[in-house]
Amino acid sequence: MGKRPSFEKSLEALEEIVAELESGQLTLDEALERYERGVALHKACAEMLAAAEKRIEVLLKGSDGELTTRPLKADEEPPREDES
Q: What integer best gives the mean pLDDT of the chain?
């Protein structure tokens, strides 16, 4: 299994696809292939951003029931989605 491309590489590839699609120089089949690849890259970028966001902030419920946020410590694991 290969290493997943970085967010920056994925975003760069997505920008190239957009430029190719906007150029109007692709055949219909080429445009469809690029579009499908672009959708996959968009999804991967969105997932990487969501994971990064979870690592940056942890949602906490105070003793008064109020929700607050704080930075996630470098050695701290983010909470799992099924934990409250």
A: 83
57 pLDDT above the threshold of 70: no
pLDDT at 19 over 60: yes
d(CA 53, CA 59): 11
Q: What is the pTM of this model?
A: 0.64
**Residue 16 DSSP SS3:** helix
Q: Where are the domains of the chain?
A: 7-71
Residues whose CB is less than 8 angstroms from the CB of residue 14 and which lie 6 or more positions away in sequence, other chains included: 38, 41, 42, 45
Residue with tokens 């003793």: 63
Token pair belonging to 75: 């050695």
What is the identity of the amino acid at 71? P
